[in-house]
Specification:
This protein is α/β, with parallel strands linked by helices. Helices cover 36% and strands 25% of the residues. InterPro entries: AAA+_ATPase, ABC_transporter-like_ATP-bd, ABC_transporter-like_CS, ABC_transporter_ATP-binding, P-loop_NTPase.
């Protein structure tokens, strides 16, 4: 009689430790517009609940089309998307209720008051009136003191905050931010970053598109790079920099060179700064970086060094390399 009880307990334990399904699951998503332009080419992606995912890509890469397809604003040409287990086409209302969207364009009624704008958005999703929730959202966005102001009286940064308040009014589990800090000054941009992290800490899943490399590097847990409708890579930020990042050794010479000496050609050195600077790129994680041998060979070549320094490659370097390599593969 004891065996069935043990088996049942094991089954329950397996259920408890089984990983949760992603909040958003995208499979082979494609979008071809009239005229034959392919904006999305078989994009597949899982987004975990409670993470910040940054989508990086040049203009026209497909970032906004991807967001629009997930939010139900664009009808896909192929593939599937589920949000919280709900198919965006077969169960549109249930899926859309889980999503808050902050578009690039500032689309709010200029003569309406801030509090009415946000309250109205909550009603659009069939939610009961909740003044306490609206107040919490407005206070979190530093809009409470402006709640009775008309939207046209607000600065550009404040209008963008109203868009975020509208998106949060119905308590979504997922928040899409399409270029959230476009046209926003540096100080307000950092305030936005702080707000996004606070939302994530409260359990909201956030997907943002951005042109600002430092924005993704500052905030994201994972980073996706998209170009020409193809998702080139999705990776943990730290892992991405670890795998693809390089370091550079910059050598400042006492006397300028016209060209790199033949004895140093094997190092792939780059000459710049009117002949005063030599740059050596190396893998910081390799067992042997070659720097010791390089410095010895520089001394044997009779070159005197004034200074040297190292620089870790940034996310921007990695991003540019991925886009360049991706386009070379297509070509």
């Amino acid at each position: 009689m004891a065996r069935p009880i043990i088996r049942v307990r094991c089954e329950r334990l397996e259920q408890e430790v089984r990983p949760l399904a992603p909040i958003i699951s995208i499979r082979n998503l494609a979008k071809t517009y009239d005229g034959g332009f392919e904006a999305l080419k078989g994009v597949s992606l899982d987004i975990e609940e409670g993470e910040i995912l940054a989508l990086l890509g040049p203009n026209g890469a497909g970032k906004t089309t991807l967001i629009s397809a997930v939010c139900g604003l664009v009808t896909p040409s192929g593939g599937t998307v589920t949000v919280g287990g709900h198919d965006i086409q077969g169960e549109f209302r249930a899926a859309r209720e889980l999503i808050g969207l902050v578009p690039q364009e500032i689309t709010i009624e200029p003569f309406e008051k801030v509090i009415n704008t946000v309250t109205f958005s909550r009603g659009l999703f069939g939610k009961r009136r909740d003044d306490a929730h609206i107040e919490r959202v407005l206070r979190a966005l530093s809009l409470w003191d402006k709640r009775h102001s008309r939207n046209k009286e607000l600065s550009g940064g404040m209008k963008r905050r109203v868009l975020i308040a509208k998106a949060l009014s119905h308590e979504p589990r997922v928040l899409f931010l399409d270029e959230p800090t476009a046209g926003v000054d540096v100080t307000l941009r950092k305030d936005m970053w702080r707000l996004v992290r606070d939302l994530r800490d409260q359990g909201t899943t956030i997907i943002l598109t951005t042109h600002y490399i430092e924005e993704a590097e500052e905030m994201a847990d994972r980073i996706g790079v998209i170009d020409h409708g193809r998702l080139l890579l999705v990776e943990e930020k730290a892992q991405l920099l670890h795998q693809l990042g390089r370091k550079e050794l910059r050598l400042e010479l006492c006397e300028p060179l016209e060209r790199v000496p033949e004895s140093l050609a094997a190092y792939g050195l780059t000459l710049s700064g009117e002949g005063y600077h030599l740059t050596y790129a190396f893998d910081a994680h390799a067992d042997h970086t070659g720097m010791t041998r390089l410095l010895a060979d520089i001394a044997r070549a009779g070159l005197d060094l004034r200074d040297l320094s190292t620089r870790q490659s940034s996310l921007e370097d990695v991003f540019l390399k991925l886009v360049r390599d991706g386009r070379e593969e297509v070509a």
